[in-house]
Structures are given as C-alpha cells and as structure tokens.
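Hi everyone,

Forwarding the result from last night's run.
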Amino acid sequence: MKAGTYIYHAHYGLQRSSGLYGSIHVIPSDGVKEPFSYDREHTLLINDWWHKSSAEQTAGLSSIPFRWVNEPQSLLIQGRGAYNCSLVNNQLNSLGTGSICNTTNPECSPHVIPVVFGKTYRLRIASVTSLSAINFMIEGHNMTIVEADGNYVEPVVVQNLNLYSGETYSVIVKADNDPSRNYWAAVNILGRMPKTPTGTAVFNYYPNHPKKPPLTTPPNGPLWNDTNYALAQSQSLKALKGFNPGPPFSSDRAINMFFTQNKIEGFSRWSINNFSFVLPSTPYLIALKQNLPHTFDPTPPPEKYDLQNYDIHLPPKNPNASYSDSIYRLDFNSTIDIILQNTNMLDPNKSETHPWHLHGHHFWVLGHGIGVFDPVNDPKKYNLVNPVVKNTVPAFPYGWTVIRFRADNPGIWAFHCHVEAHYYLGMGVVFEEGIERVARLPKSIMGCGKSKRLARP
C-alpha cells in the first residue's frame, strides 16, 4: 500500500451506516519525502447519520412496498453533528412522553480544528457517508488538493472540495486569515436536494476559545445540482509527475456497465446490464479454490448493452430485471477498461451521481462526459498522459466515466456503487483474477454454504 490516506469500514448490510468505519494513514518510508510540506495535520472523517437503525433501513429496502432510507438527519464531522431538536421534541411532547433531544449536550458541540496563525496544515479528509455526496469548505480559506485516494496529484487550489462516498483527500490549508476570531468548517449535501442541516466544525485560531462559535452563518457551499461544476472539479485532478506511472495506451478488454433502477418480482433493485447482483451462500474464493460445483452461476455476465436503442433520459420502458451471482473472470495481468454509463431512474427526470469503488486495485480515470458514451469518438478524448489514479470515482447524472486498471492482484474483488443502499440493492459486480496464484486457504475461513463440510476435522 502506497503512502497516503485510506479508510476501512464494515461491508455487511448497512453496518457502515451504524458507524463501523475508520481512517488509515500510511506514512512514507524513512528517507522518502512527500512532494509538499506542512507543520501539522488533522484528520476529518465525514459521515451521514440517521435516527433509524441500519436494521430498520435494510428491512425497508427489502420490503414491498419499498421504503427508501430517505435523507440523513445529520452530517457528522469526526462523529459530531447537529439536529433540529424542535422537530422530534414537538412530536414527543404531543404524545406526552417529554423531550429527549438536547441541543446543549456537550457531545453535540462541533468538532474543533485547532490552528495557529501563520502555520500550514494538512487536512486528511475522508467520506464514509452511506448515501450523501458532500461538499467541504472552510470559511475564508482556500485549500490546495495534493492527494486523492492515496495518490499524489498536481496541486489544485479550490474554495471547496467535493467528496463522494469512499473517497479520501489531503488538502493543504494556510492559517492566514484574521486570527482574532474562529471560522466555520462546513459540510453540505451535494447531488441530492438538501434536507439535512449543514454539518459544522470550528476552525479554531489560537488563542480563541475552542468553543467560541463564529459570529457568521455556516456557508452553504455551491448549488447542490450544479453538475457542470462538480464534473469540472473531478476533471481538474491530474496525477503528479514522477509519482504515478501512466496507463497502458490500450486495453485488452472493455466492459460496458450500464446501470439502471429496476423491479424484480415487485422488489425495487439496482442492476448492471439488467442483472441485479446477489451474493451466493458460498464465498467465491472458497468455491473456486476448492472446486465446489453449483455454488454460483458460471455464465459470464454481459459486457455490453444496446445503448443506441435506449434513451438514457427516460425511465426504462421495461423496468424488469433478473438476479445474478455470476462474475467476470479476468486474465491475470491483463489491462481492463470499464465504461460506466449512468441513466434515468424509475421516476421521470431523475438521475443521481454514483461513486464507484474497486476493491484491491487503484485505477486510472481516463475520462468523464455527459450523455451517451460514444465508442468511436470519446476514446479519442482519453487522458493517457497524466490521468488521476484513484480507487473511487463518480459517475455523474446522465453521464459516463471510463477507468482502466491492471488485473494484477490475485483474488476475488468487488466493484460497486459506494452508496450503501444501492450496493445492498444489487448495484455491483465481482471480478476474479489469478486465483491459481492464491495460496492454500486455511480451514478457519470455511463454514459458509457448501464450505461447511470442509471445516470439519
């Protein structure tokens, strides 16, 4: 793993939504100098928070009629957030149960980012949100993006930073504003109509008291539905010369992934090329290494879709899809292109940003665009010189994104939308590569599905 900022989190059901996540910092080896300097650093984990438990949410997603998780009640910075207590207290008082929401609870006070005038700070910012794309900014201060998903980038100066679920960034901030007061650090919803209060932290200039709130109103950030602005920021990221090797100039295989919202037997699902992913009871790695038959569908998933006869701006004419637990089997060390194509949802005039995350690899982001991907002309626009290297990338509303990676890490790897409810509803696929290079599996991991018999002495 390269030096940089990473995250870990639970991957069962919606456990990440319940707070099972954290940050990992990989420090450069002795003698290795990073391409930027700073005096101190702070870590900011940003999450969205619901009052309903993850168990209640998964029950709703798996029900007929379908019950969506809806927008979060709060946005958290380092586990701290706020909520409009009058909403819940008025309801409870009308029921005669009394108030339980207390805005003066010290646990609800904003997180504090201490700084000293004239010093330079690295902020390691990670989005572990379950649903929300977010925008982060510090009142009265610019930020310089220097790292994305553990890879150095050409410095980009921004007033605010877009983060999609699963992404990590490092930004450099100079504490160079009026030190006689504190400032707001603010997190706002991006890409969805905001119904959640702004998440805040205090950018605290010493010697001001850390609990002294700024006199100003927390900033609102950019318009939530300005896709062109969001696209432009993603396109501005380039790999830093000398730190990231460029991509191969061509690929061995191109897989088109066309994602839609669908219905299967009355249940609401998400699908890739009209197949909604479900996990088999026997883990893929065990099934393949132990040659266990009939554990998953061996039929390869489709790699193309007839986009020429599909209007991505309309709901699907036929909303029906099928379940599938089949996987893409990749030649080891081959170069793979993935073309992600976003479409309209079941509701008219509605398309969302989907952050796609690849396990076990980094990839080159060759390009983004709005509209239907053109296999003849759009590849001519690929950045093959200095594309940013990441492990999570957004696919914008009614748009396309192309990534390229080397299948050089033996194992079984998920590639999925990092919106937790979307993956739960089938928005993902699995890649297999080089499993013959994986060492003998220990018996301690046996026990699920048809591997139960292998666990016996």
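The radius of gyration is 23 Å.

Cheers,
N.
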